[in-house]
Amino acid sequence: MRLSSSQPASTRSRAESKQVNTRLCNHRPGHAGPPLLPWLTIAVLSVAGCDRSPAVPATGADVTTTPAARALAVRVVPVRHGDLRRVLAYVGTVRPRREIKVSARVGGTALAHRVDEGEVVKAGQPLLSISAPEMDAKAATVRAELARARVLEANACRVARTDQRLSRAGALATARADASAAQCKGAQQAARAVAGKERELHIALAHREARAPVGGRLLRWLVEPGETVGPGRPLALLAVGDTELEVQVTDTDIASGVRVGSEVKLRVDAAAAGHRSVDARVVRVAPLAVGPLRHVAIRIALPASLQATTAGAAMDAHVLLATAVDATSVPIRAVTHDSDGNAAVFTAQPSTGLGHNAKAARHEIVLGLRAGGWVAIQPPLPSGARVITSNLPALRIGRALLTVAEPTTSATEAMR
Q: How many Cβ atoms from other residues are within 10 Å of residue 34's Cβ?
């Protein structure tokens, strides 16, 4: 439409505004057409005229109050029913009940091993011989001294007996007979002293052969053939008694309830069946905490099926501290408290409607045993109930919800 220059100015202005308004309302992005920038001022003033949206109801209702806009997105977790266990997890080392070091009692050179590592030995069984040439030479010297001492003893005592007979017959002075008797006694004492030295050397020579002091299993040789050893040098390590698992725990764990008799679950790697758990118990708790971390050694008896486990091997141990039997458990993060300190959880109740799939319901609870991020509650919630774990401050009874399932782990720390 063209505007005549003869029309009044006000009429032309209204017509131009209507023309711009029509062009703005009909304009499509990407559609070629006359440039609109010169008319922006007019468009701002008149753009309301092309609003195609429905009129706002007279009641003044706000679209933000629709169910879809009010729905709150939350994460949900199913409640768990069953035993809830509080455990402490450790990694222990397999050890024999006792470890005994067999030490050298004489100095010399270690000869060949007579027993292989891992072999079971009896008390008194020879394990290793020690070559001691100097001791052999000393023993030969002492034996020669003993032979001479006994010859001197025999001669001195023979003379003393002869002098005693002559003295009684009056053919020899009594003083001379007494002197001969004293010489006999001295020779006897000298012979006894050398004989004692010879016995000591005989015992020492017997110690050249290291023997097992008790029955057990040879864990490890501590010397190799050809090494020079001195008295007191450890030669071998013996395992005595049943195999146990040693675990280093902290003094705070002891205070938490680790004690003799505590139940333990041992996790064993089975080549064919994968992981399996074995029941065991704590049999000893050390009376002393040591080290900067105040560690306390506890011993766990291994069952017969694990007695053949290699000493020094690692094994997982879960010590049971407390159990809530047949409990209803929820994640601790799902628990809320009101101003009076009362605990509660919100559950997502199934509901269908525009923009939501559930509604919030509140349940007051009493908290029980806590373990692994879960807590036992009373009264129990029904099976299949889903507790809400996110956006807790925004929850209200009956609030419309959009629920998302949250990945979870087992509600108990106990092994299966």
A: 7
What's residue 218's pLDDT? 94
What does pTM read for this prediction? 0.58
Residue spans per domain, the chain: 9-50, 72-82+325-405, 102-221, 241-324
* Planar angle of CA 193, 199, 205, nearest 5 degrees: 140
One DSSP character per residue, 54-112 reads: PPPPTT---GGGSHHHH-EEEEEEE-EEEEEEEEEEEEEEEEEEEEEEEE-SS-EEEEE
Q: Which residues contact 105 (CB under 8 A, 6 or more apart)?
A: 204, 207, 210, 231
Tokens of 317: 């141990």
Between vectors from CA 246 to CA 243 and to CA 250, what angle results, nearest 5°? 165
Give the whole-angstrom CA distance, residue 269 versus residue 383. Answer: 34
* SS3 of residue 249 by DSSP: strand
Going by C-alpha positions, the residue among 24, 29, 28 that lies closest to residue 49 is 24
366-370 long-range contacts, CB within 8 A, separation 24+: 367/335, 367/343, 368/324, 368/327, 369/84, 369/86, 369/322, 369/323, 369/324, 369/327, 370/86, 370/332
Give residue 191's identity as a one-letter amino acid code.
A
Domain 72-82+325-405, second-level architecture: Beta Barrel (2.40)
- Alpha carbon dihedral 122, 127, 132, 135, in 10-degree steps, equals -10
Distance CA 413, CA 265 (A): 11
Architecture per CATH, 241-324: Beta Barrel (2.40)
CB 312 within 8 A of CB 73: no
Find out whether the peptide bond into 350 is cis, omega within 30 degrees of 0: no
pLDDT means per 10 residues, the chain with 416 residues, are: 44 48 46 43 39 39 46 94 92 93 93 93 94 88 92 93 90 90 94 91 88 94 95 94 93 90 85 69 92 92 89 91 93 94 95 82 95 94 93 93 79 40
Q: How many CB atoms lie within 10 A of CB 385?
A: 20
